Amino acid sequence: MNLDDLALQIQNIRKRVAILQSKSEEQKVQQDIGLVTAIFGEVYLALEELQMANENLQQQNKELSNAQQALVVEHQRYHELFEEVPDAYLVTDTQGIIQEANSAASTLFNISKSLLVGKLLENFAIEKELIAFHLKLTHLRERQIPEWKTQEWEVNLRPYEKTPIIVALKVAAVRNQQGELVGLRWLLRDISESKRTQAKLEWAEEAMRQALAKERQLSELKSRLLTTTSHEFRTPLAAIHSSAELLEHYRHRWSEERQNTHLRRIQKSVMHMTQLLDDVLVLSQDEISKLGFNPRPLNLAQFCQHLLKELKQGDGSQHAIAFSNQSQCTQANFDAQLLRQILNNLFSNSLKYSPIGSTINFSVSNTSNGAIFEIQDFGIGIPTTDIEHIFEPFHRASNTDNIPGLGLGLSIVKKAVDLHGGEITVESAINAGTTFTVIVPFSSNLHISYAEVKENFTTEDVEE
Questions:
Q1: Torsions phi, psi for 289 (to 5 deg)
Q2: Residue 258: is it exposed, middle or buried by C-beta count within 10 angstroms (0-12/13-18/19+)?
């Protein structure tokens, strides 16, 4: 029974007592003792009913008090759990305005709980993710019941006066008895450190994979190097050995011309072996990052003339070399050693893969930023399928099986061009020849003076 029921019952009793009173006034009390007795009976019943109503009301008050105490205990328990959650915990309205926040949330956002309440949660998102966060919140708010319970995603948040952090968040719906969305509960965890650790692990795994791949590559390189060089050295060594034996036993019978023929054969074989060793050495130096870049002043025209003289001597005049100097630059800064490697290897290939008696065209020109070297032959050419692989170590074109070589020359050329910061292009057609174009930029990185250069190079390499 509630207070309204009790009031109604008292009113009814009053009405009954009033009726009895009016009846008692109409007749004498002495004449109607029965009526008085009836009145007292009615009053007694009314008092009994009031007593029962009072006891019922006291019982309800006691139950209400117990319920209120249980609610206080439950609220305290909720508050303790709310505070003791190790992750940031927020309660917002449907617009994302913070209504409640625990201590972990205060720590996460670097702002007191009192200042945190009333703020829009989306305002803590970094600028580039602000619109996406707002759209996500709008989407959650507008979805129909009961389409979702919990959603999870990652977002970059910016705490007050701190660098941004990566946060994994979970958001759950708060609904009333009718199932309508009335708020949102948020659980946020800073995963920046775990993300950094994950990135480091991924980087370490990638570095390990690259190291293993590099190790396998070096192992294969060494194996191919031993196999190829041992094969390539046999031919010049056999030529040296046979010519030396013939000279030892028959030189006293031979003419001077015939002796010179075998001597030149020995010299040529020695030069070939020297070139092979130089290529292997350069490749080895580059693999261990010892191939440096040291630009110095260089007279380009005289350098090319001196190089051509050496090439013609080594070739024995079996090919014609047509030189065209269109460069207006008499002196620039180059690494003479690397430049010699570039041109030597390109000429070596042109001479090797061109028929005897053919012409090799060599031209030098320049732009305002660098020198352009072009070497054109009319030899066997390079198959289209091999063009993209010709700068790989030990790769040899499919049409060079019967011509000796290590397949290192062009890989050395590419590395030397890269060290200069230049570029190299190739055009070729089967049995029509090949043209290599090398662009080498001028360098301003001088390591020594021009006077020091003259002491280290021949007068044919530098301008006197």
A1: 60, 35
A2: middle
Neighbours of 231 (CB within 10 A): 11
Among 386, 394, 392, which Cα is nearest to 429's?
386
Does 146 score more than 60 pLDDT? no
What Cα–Cα distance (Å) separates residue 116 from each residue in 89, 110, 113?
Answer: 12, 9, 5
Q: Of 96-105, 172-181, 232-241, 269-278, which range is least confident? A: 269-278
| Measured CA angle at 214 (ends 211, 217), to 5 deg | 155
Distance CA(224)–CA(316), nearest Å, equals 31
For residues 241 and 255, give the distance between their C-alpha atoms in angstroms, rounded to a whole number: 20
Q: How many helices (H) and strands (E) does the chain have?
A: 12, 12
- In a 13 Å sphere around the CA of 116, the CA atoms on its Cβ side amount to 25
pLDDT digits over 60-84, tens only?
A: 888 887 777 777 666 666 665 556 6
pLDDT of 352: 85
pLDDT digits (tens, 9 = 90+) for 150-196: 788 899 999 988 899 999 999 988 888 888 888 898 999 999 988 88
The rounded distance, in Å, linking the Cα atoms of 418 and 410 is 12
Helix (H) or strand (E) holding 81: helix 33-84
